[in-house]
């Protein structure tokens, strides 16, 4: 049986594609306060602003390209069973060719209903723009398919179950400060080898079970490959 590698990726995975992280911009996302653009309250009080923010993120993501690190994960599928669990809402893993990608926080290229039962259906967005006047079949406005702060993470349990089966868990580019996603690492078995790749890895306070590689995603993956 092939060794099962599970990658848990965060915003740092896409940093080398030119997409900024939260942590590196002091808790802001492209100069916006999280409360103003990524919460249910923000949507309720100013849906146009929220829509505009995600439209501009979508435009940026569509113009970005998968980086060396995204491509390296795809390559590993030749010799390993590879699963990617990403906190990112970009689609760069998919565009690099990874075949097994679970999005914990949604995928910005899709929309969903802003009404009740919003977890039922996702609609691909044609182009970069979603308008507040765009409605889904149930008559509610379409909102980006992203999990906002304060919302449940429907894929959490599935991700937790997958991580239990990992032979090697590799966390890349996550500050491990956004919960519940950060808690996923505790589902790995004791025998599972654990790596953290992050230029600030030493500061992130992971347990001693983790082998920390203080490097960018692309450089850190090269070092990681030497451990396989
Ligand atoms: N690309 C995206 O989709 C995107 C971008 C920003 C934020 N987000 C959302 O914000 C949340 C932020 O939490 P998070 O923990 O993922 O990100 P975070 O911003 O809290 O932390 C990013 C981490 O990446 C590291 N990093 C910076 N440059 C790196 C590089 N070149 N290679 C590897 N690591 C690098 C930083 O040291 C930091 O530890 C996520 O849950 C996600 O939904 C997504």
Write a structural description.
This protein has 2 domains: 1-19 and 67-105 and 151-228, TPP-binding domain (Rossmann fold, 3-Layer(aba) Sandwich); 26-63 and 108-146, SIR2/SIRT2 'Small Domain' (2-Layer Sandwich). The strands form 2 sheets. Strands 3-2-1-7-8-9 form a 6-stranded parallel sheet, with helices on both faces. Strands 5-4-6 form a 3-stranded antiparallel sheet, covered by helices on one side. The mean pLDDT is 93. 26% of the residues lie in helices and 19% in strands. It has 228 residues and is an alpha/beta fold. Bound molecules: nicotinamide-adenine-dinucleotide (NAD). Nicotinamide-adenine-dinucleotide (NAD) binds next to loops.
Task: Please sum up the structure shown.
Helices cover 26% and strands 19% of the residues. The protein is built from seven helices and nine strands; from the N terminus they run βααααβαββββαβββα.
Put simply, the count of helices is: 7
Relative helix content: 25-40%
- Order of strands across the biggest sheet? 3-2-1-7-8-9
What small molecules does this complex bind? nicotinamide-adenine-dinucleotide
Care to count the β-strands?
9
- Please give the CATH architecture of the largest domain: 3-Layer(aba) Sandwich
How much strand? 15-25%
Task: Compute the number of structural domains.
Answer: 2
Q: What does the main sheet amount to?
A: 6 strands, parallel
* Low-pLDDT windows of residues: none
Return the string of H and E elements: EHHHHEHEEEEHEEEH
Overall geometric form: globular
The CATH topology annotation of the largest domain reads as Rossmann fold
What is the CA–CA distance across the termini? Answer: 16 Å
What would you call the structural class? Answer: alpha/beta
CATH class categorisation of the largest domain: Alpha Beta
Average the pLDDT over all residues and give the rounded result: 93
Question: Roughly how many Å is the radius of gyration?
Answer: 18 Å
């Amino acid at each position: 049986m092939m060794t099962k590698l599970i990658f848990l990726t965060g915003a740092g995975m896409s940093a080398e594609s030119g997409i900024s992280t939260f942590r590196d911009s002091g808790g802001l996302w492209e100069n916006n306060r999280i409360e103003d653009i990524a919460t249910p309250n923000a949507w309720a009080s100013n849906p146009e602003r929220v829509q505009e923010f995600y439209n501009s993120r979508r435009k940026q993501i569509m113009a970005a390209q998968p980086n060396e690190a995204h491509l390296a994960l795809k390559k590993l599928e030749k010799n390993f069973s590879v699963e990617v669990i990403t906190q990112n809402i970009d689609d760069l893993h998919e565009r690099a060719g990874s075949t097994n990608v679970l999005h914990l926080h949604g995928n910005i290229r899709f929309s969903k209903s802003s009404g009740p039962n919003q977890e039922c259906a996702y609609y691909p967005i044609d182009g970069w723009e979603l308008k507040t006047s765009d409605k889904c079949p149930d008559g509610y406005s379409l909102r980006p398919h992203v999990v906002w702060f304060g919302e449940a993470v429907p894929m959490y349990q599935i991700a937790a179950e997958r991580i239990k089966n990992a032979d090697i868990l590799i966390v890349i580019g996550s500050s491990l400060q956004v919960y519940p996603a950060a808690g996923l690492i505790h589902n790995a078995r004791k025998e599972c080898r654990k790596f953290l790749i992050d230029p600030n890895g030493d500061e992130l306070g992971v347990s001693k079970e983790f082998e920390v590689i203080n490097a960018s995603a692309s450089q850190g993956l090269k070092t990681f490959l030497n451990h396989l």
